[in-house]
Design goal:
heterodimer, A: 313 residues, mainly alpha, Fusion Protein Consisting Of Minor Coat Protein, Glycine Rich Linker, Tola, And A His Tag, Chain: A, Domain 2, three-stranded antiparallel beta sheet, 35% helix, B: 235 residues, 8 helices
Chain lengths: 313, 235
């Protein structure tokens, strides 16, 4: 028994010493470095919002309804990040600075009409000037007010300061058209900040406002609703080229209020069938479900029925 | 981010070697570990001892059988063996021959129930030999069955204290949890380390005991037959 005990003790001590050497300490796992990718959540509205139309922009087709090759040619290169779009807005040919000085000169026709008007114009001016004077004064001094007026009336004959004012007022009254143009063009087109989308300027909607945002997904929803009801003219010769543009108005409950109107025409005999199929599609899907809050954005809808996209071309 | 770094730094960065695990453990777990280590030492001592005993017994039986069946006279064999300390078959032979001799001593030999006495003497000798071979095998069986539970107890206790430490440090960071669990599992490892050789050795040795006892019983029957023939021839 003693021999066995000695052998056992020896064996265990050898084992423990071996454990001290073989397992000195735990080794940490070597974890491969994982690259972190920063992800920014950007609302889609910044890219797909409808903007206020610009008068001078040219009419363009909506890119999404065209085959994929055509928009690539038209749209400018998109910016890498939403923040720094280097492609500036293709600003309209800037006649803005020119017309503003112009109004008195190019429209002499209006002048004869406005010529008699300068006479009444100075009249309100003296009336406006005395008003500030009596206002600070207490009410009981009504005597002072008539006292002031004679002084001014005595001054009135000297109408020399008046002429500069008629000059300013003249263009305003000349014609409404130039007035609107001046209002529209007050802000000169400048480099765009990052908040603006990169899509080229278009005519936009008629009641377009900068605040209304119709996202791309909402537009796609409308398009898909129409596309579900549309049976394109499959068998016709040259059906791929039968591009029908339909305009219609919608009421607030999503029904077509102003009937679908085909905007383009084509000499192809099959065009009539295609056009009627497009009109039928619009009428069949009538209660369109769209966000009521953006009614101004979809009050009037123009849809391009492009069979190439529909047929999977 | 800063808080995360601070907790990571504040976590116990322990020594995870065998000895580090032992010294960091709770006192109860340390006692369990030491007990398991002692049990392992004792088991291996028994195993080594038993291996030597069984080898020696087998060699002795082989040598005795060759001598016994070599045609040598039983009286001469008894003369050479009866002064020694004998084991297994030699002890059987000596016990039976001693009973035979004693029965023939004196003026009136008691031969009437000599056969029965010889059988009983040999049975007792076999039992004594079996007891000698089986000695301490029960320790192996006990260690083999209970060491895992003892190790498990140490593990449970260690994990209990580890969770208490986690609750105290108010952090579930893995660096806080891991050392406590590692040192707790070390107790189970020691329990298995003691139990597995004990179980294997117990099974082997108990079968060896059975085989040796069967061999001795076979020899006892044969020798009893020889002596019985002698008794009948003389009577």
């Amino acid at each position: 028994m003693r021999a066995g005990l000695i052998a056992s003790l020896t064996g265990h001590s050898v084992f423990l010493v071996w454990g001290l050497i073989a397992f000195p300490d735990a080794k940490s796992f070597s974890v491969p470095q994982v690259e972190t990718l920063p992800v920014d959540l950007v609302p889609i509205e910044e890219f797909t919002q409808l903007r206020l139309g610009e008068k001078t922009a040219e009419v363009r087709d909506v890119a999404a309804l065209q085959p994929s090759d055509t928009p690539a040619e038209e749209t400018p290169q998109p910016a890498d990040k939403p923040g720094d779009s280097q492609v500036q807005q293709p600003s309209p040919p800037t006649p803005a600075p020119a017309p503003t000085p112009a109004p008195p000169e190019p429209e002499p026709v209006a002048e004869p009409e406005d010529a008699p008007e300068p006479a009444p114009a100075p009249e309100p001016v003296p009336a406006a000037e005395p008003e500030p004077a009596p206002e600070p004064e207490p009410v009981p001094q009504q005597e002072a007010a008539p006292a002031v007026q004679p002084i001014l009336t005595s001054v009135a004959p000297r109408t020399k300061p008046a002429p500069p004012r008629p000059q300013r007022q003249e263009p305003r009254d000349e014609s409404i058209v130039t007035d609107v143009a001046a209002l529209l063009n007050k802000v000169e087109p400048a480099g765009q900040t990052g908040g603006q989308p990169d899509t080229p300027a278009s005519l936009g909607t008629r009641q377009g406002a900068p605040n209304i945002r119709m996202t791309q997904s909402e537009l796609d929803a409308l398009r898909s609703q129409v596309a579900m009801c549309w049976s394109p003219p499959v068998g016709a010769v040259g059906a791929e080229d039968l591009n029908v543009r339909v305009r219609f108005n919608l009421s607030q409950n999503g029904e077509v209020s102003n009937g679908p109107e085909v905007m383009n025409s084509n000499a192809t005999p099959a065009f009539r069938a295609a056009a009627s199929s497009a009109v039928r599609a619009v009428m069949r899907c009538q209660p369109y479900s769209l966000p009521i809050a953006k009614y101004d954005a979809w009050q009037e809808v123009i849809i391009n029925f492009d069979p190439r996209e529909m047929l999977g071309g | 981010m800063e808080t995360l770094v601070e907790t990571t730094l504040a976590a116990p960065k322990g020594d995870l070697s065998f000895y580090g695990l032992f010294w960091q453990a709770h006192i109860v777990v340390q006692i369990v570990m030491l007990g398991l280590l002692a049990a392992s030492v004792w088991c291996w001592a028994i195993i080594v001892d038993k291996i030597m005993i069984f080898g020696k017994t087998k060699r002795q039986m082989n040598r005795f059988e060759t001598v016994f069946w070599s045609g040598q006279s039983l009286e001469e064999l008894y003369g050479t063996l009866h002064n020694r300390v004998n084991h297994s078959m030699a002890a059987l032979f000596v016990a039976a021959m001693r009973e035979w001799k004693r029965s023939h001593e004196g003026a009136r030999p008691a031969i009437g129930s000599l056969q029965q006495r010889i059988d009983r003497v040999m049975d007792v000798t076999i039992q004594r030999e079996q007891e000698r071979l089986e000695n301490r095998l029960l320790i192996l069986a006990t260690v083999g069955s209970s060491a895992p539970f003892i190790g498990l107890f140490g593990t449970v206790w260690g994990i209990m204290t580890a969770f208490q430490a986690i609750a105290a440090s108010e952090s579930t960071n893995l660096a806080v949890v891991a050392p406590g669990i590692a040192e707790a599992l070390f107790a189970t490892a020691l329990g298995l380390l003691a139990a597995i050789p004990a179980v294997i050795a117990y099974n082997k040795f108990s079968s060896d005991v059975g085989r040796a006892v069967a061999r001795m019983e076979g020899f006892a029957d044969e020798f009893s037959a020889i002596l019985s023939r002698q008794i009948d021839e003389r009577g």
